[in-house]
Protein: Transcriptional regulator, LacI family
Amino acid sequence: MARRATLKDVARAAGVSVTTVSLVLNGRPARVSKEKRELIAKAAKELHYVPNQSARSLVTKQSKLVALIVPDIENLFFAALSKCVEDECAAQGYSLIVANSDDSRATEHDLMVRLASRGVDGMMLIPARESCAAEDELRADVEQVACPVVLIDRLVQNGWCDAVGFDNYVGGRLAARYLLEGGHRHIGIVTGDVAESSALDRKRGFVDAIEQAGERFDPALCVAGDYRFDSGYHAADRIIDGGATAVFCCNDVMALGFRQRLAERGLQATQDMQVIGYDNILKRFGLGLHMTTVEQSVTDLAEACWRMLSVRIDATIGRTGAKDGNDSDSVSAEDGGERPWLRHPRVQLLTPKLVQAACA
Structure:
């Protein structure tokens, strides 16, 4: 294996000092002439020089690594979110480590410990399903992590840590209102696991909107799912046989499963039963079905998460102010080194929207 070129090699080839090479390659060439900068760039290219990030981290106190822990990497929403978060990180020179907890509290704990030991500059976490029922344990883990942490999607409104998510209660109401305005009165719902705050909020918003419209919500038309295709498929018979004319599936993947069972029974979505999904994620994966859905934009969510985390990272390494120049996002001096993401947590709720007959 060929020896990796070093700063000394570049300096020798360019006929300058190591300090001069370091200034130029680290983007601080103000005191270096244009001629020397060009010599250094030429030498670095010819030697195939690649900066040693480990060595640089010792000086800058930054690893330029960020972690994202998701509960189920096979879930289309989490997969798409991971891609969008990676794009946000890469645009600022960070690399993203994506880890899968399999919705396990124990696995999530181990991942947080291992990733923290890798020296990540920040961590984004969609809590495992088991952590939603053991929030004190999750909180203890977050408090042990030295780097900034942002919670995503679940436990967002509990207020003890920086968090970003969508207003799922509003999303549930949007779905119910759309179906009510379409003349439906017997409406079913396939929920996520209501032990999770996001799933519970979608259900609450849905039921409240129906009852506030003066209609009766029939508990017999409520089937618990788990955001997977099979749970939507297996919920269909009970809701169809219960006399529902419409159904709200609390994510698009369960809606696909529900539609599959409809087709097997010789029924057509929209004509025989209105089916609404949630997420608006299918077209990203080549599944552009003609289906109304409640959209929570993964692009907007990724941007908001990274903006919140990057502000905290900047503060921990001694820089102040947000990257977008918005003073309202800057970290105040009183936060100091006292983990402001826990002492003065910020919560941002994004607003979902209804997208009719599309999965764009």
Summary: Confidence is low (pLDDT under 50) at residues 319-336. The CA atoms of residues 131 and 359 lie 31 Å apart.
